[in-house]
Every structure is written in C-alpha cells, then in structure tokens.
Amino acid sequence: MKTKECPSCAMEVDPSSNVCPICQYEFAETKTSYKWIAIILIVVMLLYLFVF
Predict the structure, then answer these.
(1) Bridge partners, residue 13, by sequence
(2) How far is it, in rounded angstroms, from Cα 46 to Cα 49?
(3) Are 4 and 15 in contact (CB under 8 A)?
(4) C-beta separation of 19 from 6 below 8 A
(5) Distance between CA 7 and CA 25 in Å, rounded?
(6) Confidence bin at 49 (pLDDT 50/70/90)
(7) How far apart are CA 52 and CA 46, in angstroms?
(8) What gap in Å lies between CA 38 and CA 52, rounded to an integer?
(9) Predicted local confidence at residue 45, as pLDDT
C-alpha cells in the first residue's frame, strides 16, 4: 500500500489524507489544472525557441 510522508513529523500516512493524524500538518492540495497549464506553457516556449 502506498503512503506519503508527513514533512513535519515523518509519519507515513494514507495518500488520500489531507491532515496528518499525529501532528495535524495540513497537506497542500495540488490541482491538476496547474500541471496542465505548466505543460502547455513549456510546449509553447519550446515551439517558440525552435521555430524562431
């Protein structure tokens, strides 16, 4: 079973948890829309560099 590590207390917690059960650290939510925007910007920049 996959887990993620709490950066505050190093406890292994369930990957779907938003809060660490030991130290109450709140995990930041990563939105997939930001990833797609970043990928699109990188592709556009690469195209611009190679075309011009």
Answers:
(1) 4
(2) 5
(3) yes
(4) no
(5) 8
(6) very high
(7) 10
(8) 21
(9) 96
What pTM was estimated for this model as a whole?
A: 0.52
d(CA 42, CA 32): 16
18-35 pLDDT, tens digit each: 999 999 999 987 677 888
20 alpha carbon, distance to own chain's centre: 17
Find out whether 12 and 1 touch, Cβ atoms under 8 Å.
no
Half-sphere exposure of 31 (CA within 13 A, CB side): 4
34 burial type by CB count under 10 A (0-12 exposed, 13-18 middle, 19+ buried): exposed
Strand runs labelled E in the chain: 4-5, 12-13
